[in-house]
Design brief:
The protein has 24 helices and no strands. It has 501 residues and is mainly α. The chain has one domain. Helix 1 runs antiparallel to helix 11, helix 2 runs antiparallel to helix 10 and helix 7 runs parallel beside helix 9.
Length: 501
C-alpha cells in the first residue's frame, strides 16, 4: 500500500512538473512580451484589481474544496454541499464588489478601476464552478489530466494577453488574459472530471465538513489580509508604479516556485491524507520531495537573483531597471520554499488545520508590523522585511510539522543542504565572473556566458560535495531524455534516501 501510494505520488509529481514547467515557460514568454508593451503602472492597476478580489476568491473557490481532498470517506452529498456553498458565496461577493466598485476605486485613487472590477467580478463564478472538479482530480492524484488543463490554460491566456497588449496597450490586456485562463480551466476541469453539478445534499453532510472548512477558510482569509496589507500599503504610499514593480518581483518568484517546487508540494495534501496513519511513509515522502525540489529550485533562485542586473533590462526592458533590487530580494526569499511549501499541505492533510491557522495569523501580524515599519523607507526595505518574516514563519512551520507528524526539524533543515551549498558556491562564482566580464561584450552574450558558467559551476560543486548523488542525477537526466521518466524519478529518490541514511 505504501509503495503504491509513493509510486502514484511520483507519477503525480512528474505530470504536475511537466504542466508547471510548460506554464512557467509560457508565462515567462508572455510576460516578456507584455512587460515590454505595458508599463509598471499598468501592472500596478491590475494588481489593485487582484487585491480587491483576494478575499472574495477565498470564500468562493479557494478554501471549501480542500475538504474534498482531505476527507477519507467522501460521499456525493459532501461534493454537492461544497458546490452549493461556493456558488452562494460567489453570488454574494459578486454583488458586493459590483456595488462597491466606485468606493474601492476611490480608495486606490484610480477611477478607471470601476469597470475593471465589475468585469473581473465574473471570475468569482468561474472559480466556484471550477473548484469541485479540480479537487476531485487532485484527490485521486490524476495529475496527467491536470497537466492538460494547465497547458491549455497557459496557451490560451498567453495568446489573449499578448494580442490584447498589442491592441489595447493598457491594463485591460492583463484582465482579459486572466479571465480567458479561468474560462479554459473551468471547461477543461469539468470535462475531464466528468462532474455534473447537483443540489442534492443534507445538513449532516455539510456539518461534517464544517470544522475543517471554517478553519481553512479563516486561514486563507488571514493570508489574503496579509497580502492585501503589503500590496495595499505599497500602492497607497509608494504609488502604482512601485506596486507594479513589486508585483513583477512576486510574479517571477511564483513562476520559479510553480515550476520547481509546486509539482512536489501540490501532492502533499492528498499524500498526507492517505498516509497519516503510516508516518514512516509520510516522512519518506516529505524528505524525498524536499530534496528533489531543492535540487533544481535552489540554483534557480540564487542564480536568477545574481544575474538579475544583467537579465532584467534584456528580458523585460529598461523601464524595469528600478525593480532589480526588489526582484533579487524576493528571489532569495524563495529559497525557503523547498522546505516550507510542504508544511501547510502536510498539516492540512493530517487534519491539523488549527496549526496552519496559527502560523498564518502569526505571519499576518508580523507582516503588518514589518511593512508599516519600512514602507516610508523604500520598496527595497519592504522586500527585506518580508524576507525576514519568511524565515520566522519557516521556523514556526517546521516546529508544527514536527509536533504533528514527528518529522524532526533538523531533517527539514538538512533536506537538500548539498544542493543549497552547491548553489551558494555557484552564485559566488557567477557574481565574481560578472565583475570581470569585458565591457565591450554585448549584454545578451554576457547573460549567456553567465548562465553557462552557473550551470557548469553548480554541476561541479555537486560532483565535489556528493559524487555518488551527482552520478545518479546524471543517469537520471539521461533517462529523462530517453523518455524513462519513472525510472529517473526512482533513481534520484534512491540517491536522496541513500544520502539521508
Amino acid at each position: 500500500m505504501a509503495q503504491s501510494l509513493l509510486r502514484r505520488a511520483g507519477k503525480a509529481v512528474m505530470f504536475n512538473a511537466l504542466g508547471n514547467w510548460f506554464g512557467m515557460l509560457g508565462g515567462i514568454l508572455s510576460l516578456v512580451f507584455i512587460a515590454r508593451l505595458l508599463s509598471p503602472t499598468d501592472f500596478g492597476i491590475y494588481g489593485m484589481t487582484l487585491v480587491t478580489f483576494a478575499i472574495p476568491e477565498i470564500f468562493a473557490s479557494g478554501s471549501l474544496n480542500e475538504s474534498l481532498i482531505q476527507r477519507r470517506n467522501l460521499q456525493a452529498g459532501h461534493v454537492n454541499s461544497v458546490f452549493m456553498q461556493s456558488l452562494f458565496l460567489a453570488t454574494v461577493f459578486w454583488l458586493g464588489t459590483y456595488l462597491l466598485a466606485p468606493l474601492i476605486a476611490q480608495a486606490f485613487n484610480h477611477p478607471e478601476l470601476v469597470p475593471m472590477i465589475r468585469v473581473f467580478a465574473v471570475s468569482l463564478y468561474f472559480g466556484a464552478l471550477t473548484s469541485v472538479p479540480a479537487a476531485l482530480l487532485q484527490r485521486d492524484l490524476r495529475y496527467s489530466e491536470i497537466t492538460i488543463v494547465d497547458v491549455l490554460g497557459t496557451i490560451c491566456a498567453a495568446v489573449v494577453g499578448v494580442t490584447l497588449a498589442f491592441i489595447l496597450q493598457n491594463a485591460w490586456a492583463l484582465v482579459f488574459m486572466e479571465l480567458s485562463r479561468r474560462v479554459i480551466r473551468l471547461v477543461a476541469f469539468a470535462t475531464l472530471a466528468k462532474w455534473t453539478p447537483s443540489f442534492k445534499s443534507s445538513w449532516t453532510e455539510t456539518r461534517e465538513l464544517s470544522r475543517y472548512n471554517s478553519l481553512n477558510m479563516a486561514t486563507k482569509v488571514v493570508y489574503a489580509i496579509e497580502t492585501t496589507i503589503s500590496r495595499g500599503l505599497i500602492g497607497a504610499v509608494l504609488g502604482s508604479a512601485a506596486l507594479g514593480m513589486f508585483n513583477m518581483a512576486v510574479r517571477l518568484q511564483e513562476q520559479v516556485k510553480s515550476a520547481f517546487v509546486t509539482p512536489f508540494s501540490a501532492v502533499a495534501l492528498p499524500v498526507a491524507s492517505q498516509s497519516q496513519h503510516d508516518l514512516l511513509t509520510l516522512h519518506r515522502a516529505i524528505e524525498g520531495a524536499m530534496r528533489l525540489a531543492g535540487l533544481i529550485a535552489y540554483p534557480t533562485f540564487i542564480g536568477a537573483s545574481v544575474i538579475a542586473p544583467v537579465a532584467v533590462p534584456i528580458v523585460f526592458g529598461e523601464q524595469w531597471i528600478p525593480a532589480i533590487t526588489t526582484i533579487q530580494i524576493l528571489l532569495l526569499m524563495g529559497l525557503r520554499s523547498p522546505t516550507t511549501a510542504f508544511n501547510s499541505g502536510v498539516l492540512n492533510g493530517v487534519g491539523r488545520i488549527d496549526w496552519t491557522f496559527k502560523i498564518t495569523l502569526t505571519g499576518m501580524i508580523v507582516t503588518s508590523m514589518a511593512v508599516a515599519a519600512t514602507i516610508h523607507i523604500s520598496l527595497e526595505a519592504v522586500a527585506v522585511a518580508l524576507l525576514m518574516q519568511s524565515l520566522l514563519i519557516w521556523g514556526l512551520g517546521a516546529y508544527a510539522v514536527k509536533s504533528s507528524v514527528g518529522f524532526p526539524m533538523h531533517r527539514q533543515v538538512l533536506a537538500g543542504s548539498t544542493a543549497l551549498i552547491g548553489s551558494v558556491i555557484m552564485g559566488a562564482v557567477v557574481w565574481v565572473a560578472m565583475q570581470f566580464q569585458p565591457e565591450a561584450m554585448t549584454a545578451p552574450v554576457r547573460l549567456l556566458m553567465l548562465v553557462l558558467i552557473g550551470v557548469l559551476t553548480y554541476a561541479g560543486a555537486l560532483a565535489s560535495l556528493s559524487p555518488r548523488f551527482a552520478r545518479r542525477a546524471l543517469q537520471a537526466a539521461i533517462m529523462l531524455l530517453q523518455g524513462r521518466r519513472e525510472e529517473a524519478i526512482a533513481l534520484v529518490k534512491g540517491a536522496s534516501m541513500d544520502k539521508a541514511n
